[in-house]
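QA checklist item 7 of 12: single-chain prediction sanity check.
[x] sequence parsed
[x] length recorded as 191
[x] structure emitted
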Amino acid sequence: MQAGHSLAVGTLVTWLVTEALGAFMVLGWAASGGARAARRRPAGEEVMSLPVLIGHAALNAAGLLCWIIFLSAWVKPAAWIALGLMAPAIGLGISTVTIWTPYPGPRRRGQPTVAGPAAELMGVLPDELVKRALEDEKLSRSLVEGLLQRNLAPAPARSVGWNLRPLVPLSHGVLAIATFVLAILAVVAAG
């Protein structure tokens, strides 16, 4: 058996678990309407960038394929290529954290929603929307009522238990770094 084989297998295992967590997050993001929001993103709005997400996933998948080639045939250049693909993939992954916080998910039951013309004004208010709201009494009233409804509504009943959703992206990131370190160690041990 070659030196570093167990490290290479451990790297594969952590890489596969990391990929599974990433796929779980992307499926949750898509199910909560993230893909639609990214496609019709207005300028300046912070939503997940599809090219960044696709680049992150594609680099990881290509790196994983190279790692499998390295592990199955012990082709050392494939391991170096996998490391070279993993580094920018981690960089793109880190860039998604700033946009993807908090981790997306479905709206909790009992959380108030705002409907009507005020719904579009509930985020950051661009100048032209503020001017329009000041000129239109009905829109102003709707905006104020929506803000009051959202901010003065009783807090939803809290269930007893832990919210484990933040552990998914945290685990994904920690495992990605661990995979990178294991891959470096495996490549160095392989000679």
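[x] summary fact logged: The chain has two domains: 1-108+167-191, 112-155.
[ ] second reviewer sign-off
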